């Protein structure tokens, strides 16, 4: 067996070194290059986020002012809504219509109160109409989250505590033409939060008036600090002094006052007797 020449051994060593260098390039340098590209992508994303945050920080005062303004507007709107509407309120509303206008209500139907689900506006509806008016001083953020289209509109810090309800009612009536116009105008311009959902009218040749029906809603907000004001119906007494109908009702406060006066008289008489006994006798 021939011995390997020294030159052949050197060539073999050189070949092994080349293979090691190639393997190092593919397994080390290539992976390092991929990692570098990944880090550069992450760095670009972070730079974009930093730029966005810097833009928000530059407009901090604007956002604070707009937040305060919208909060004031929201509170002003909430203040316009009553905390509750009850059946007696709707009954007395129809009575007020008869007292003020030439309308004769034949029937009143009141339905249960219902929660109003308000769908959030789409992204197109939320965008400002004049896109050119949006400047660097007033940037617009996209705060839409997944599923927001199916939810209830968020009202700042009130979205979990304040809810909108409507109390539907329907009336059948006869009314003059002029009064019908006045009633519609009064409902539209009223401070009461209400609207008309359906109005049906027909001319009554016998009376010269209009006969018809109207469906309307009264809206309320629950969860606010506003308290329900008990309805005061003129000419109608509420409650009773004789709950058990015994026929005799004692005024405990009056009885207590009478007993107190009697005790004071007895004590004064005893004091007079004691005074007369202790006074010395005149021997003269």
Quick rundown:
This protein has 284 residues and is of the alpha+beta class.
Give me the secondary-structure topology:
Blueprint: H1 6-58, H2 60-79, H3 87-100, E1 103-110, E2 114-115, H4 123-126, E3 163-175, H5 177-189, E4 194-204, E5 209-222, H6 252-278
Strand content: 15-25%
Highest CATH level, the class of the domain at 83-122 and 148-222: Alpha Beta
The low-pLDDT segments are: 125-156, 278-284
Q: Briefly note the CATH topology name of the domain at 83-122 and 148-222.
A: Alpha-Beta Plaits
The CATH superfamily of the domain at 83-122 and 148-222 is Ribosomal protein S6/Translation elongation factor EF1B
Give helix % range.
40-55%
Describe the structure.
With about 280 residues, the chain is α+β, with helices and mostly antiparallel strands. Among the domains are: about 5-60; about 85-120 and about 150-220, 2-Layer Sandwich (Alpha-Beta Plaits). The protein is about 45% helix and about 15% strand. It has 6 helices and 5 strands; from the N terminus they run αααββαβαββα. Strands 1, 2, 3, 4 and 5 form a 5-stranded antiparallel β-sheet that branches. The longest helix has about 55 residues, at about 5-60. The radius of gyration is 43 Å and the shape is elongated. The N and C termini lie far apart (about 175 Å).
């Amino acid at each position: 067996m021939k011995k390997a020449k020294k030159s052949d051994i050197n060539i073999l060593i050189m070949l092994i070194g080349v293979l090691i260098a190639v393997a190092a390039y593919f397994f080390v340098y290539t992976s390092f290059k991929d990692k570098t590209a990944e880090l550069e992508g992450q760095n670009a994303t972070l730079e974009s986020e930093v730029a966005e945050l810097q833009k928000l920080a530059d407009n901090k005062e604007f956002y604070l002012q707009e937040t305060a303004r919208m909060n004031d507007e929201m509170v002003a709107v909430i203040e316009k809504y009553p905390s509750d509407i009850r059946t007696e309120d709707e009954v007395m509303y129809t009575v007020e219509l008869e007292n003020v206008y030439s309308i004769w209500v034949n029937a009143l139907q009141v339905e249960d109160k219902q929660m109003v689900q308000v769908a959030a506006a789409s992204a197109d509806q939320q965008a400002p109409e004049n896109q050119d008016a949006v400047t660097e001083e007033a940037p617009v953020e996209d705060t839409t989250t997944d599923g927001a289209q199916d939810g209830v509109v968020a009202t700042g810090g009130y979205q979990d505590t304040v809810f909108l309800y409507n109390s539907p009612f329907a009336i059948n009536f006869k009314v003059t033409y002029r009064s019908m116009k006045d009633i519609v105008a009064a409902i539209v311009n009223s401070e009461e939060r209400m609207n008309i959902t359906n109005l049906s009218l027909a001319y009554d040749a016998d009376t010269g008036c209009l006969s018809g029906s109207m469906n309307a809603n009264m809206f309320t907000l629950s969860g606010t600090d506003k308290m329900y004001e008990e309805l005061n119906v003129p000419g109608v007494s509420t409650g009773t002094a004789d709950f058990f109908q015994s026929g005799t009702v004692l005024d405990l406060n009056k009885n207590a006052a009478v007993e107190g006066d009697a005790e004071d008289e007895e004590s004064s008489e005893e004091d007079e007797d004691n005074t007369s006994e202790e006074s010395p006798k005149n021997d003269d």
